């Protein structure tokens, strides 16, 4: 191969590397954007799951707290046992 052919081959390889690098950066940017959206959605779902499990637990505790308070204030409400 002559010097001109080698220079041409070098330019082709350099251009190819640059093109691949640009495509990869663009692809990763799109992927990162999609992962950000997915992450936000998962955080939102996690909040719903946590609040959904807390609410029934609080609703189960509430009557117990009311009964305990009533027992303290009115002796007629004392439990037999």
Quick description:
The protein is an all-alpha fold and 81 residues long. The protein is built from one helix and no strands.
Note the main attributes of this structure.
81 residues; mainly alpha
Largest sheet: none
Q: What integer value in Å does the Rg equal?
A: 34 Å
Poorly predicted runs are none
The coarse silhouette is: rod-shaped
Write down how many β-strands occur, each being a DSSP E stretch of 2 or more residues. Answer: 0
Assign a percent range to the helix content: over 70%
Average residue-wise pLDDT: 85
Can you count the helices? 1
End-to-end Cα distance, whole Å, is 103 Å
% residues in beta strands: under 5%
Helix/strand order, N-terminal first: H
Structural class: mainly alpha
Task: Give an overview of the whole structure.
- This protein is mainly α.
- Helices cover 88% and strands 0% of the residues.
- The radius of gyration is 34 Å and the shape is rod-shaped.
- The termini are far apart.
- The model has no long low-confidence stretch (mean pLDDT 85).
SSE inventory with pairings:
Layout lengths: L2 H71 L8
């Amino acid at each position: 191969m002559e010097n001109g052919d080698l220079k041409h081959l070098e330019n082709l390889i350099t251009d190819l590397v640059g093109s691949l690098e640009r495509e990869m950066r663009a692809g990763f940017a799109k992927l990162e954007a999609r992962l950000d959206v997915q992450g936000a959605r998962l955080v939102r779902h996690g909040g719903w799951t946590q609040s959904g499990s807390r609410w029934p637990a609080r609703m189960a505790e509430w009557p117990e707290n009311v009964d305990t308070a009533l027992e303290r204030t009115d002796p007629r409400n004392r439990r037999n046992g």
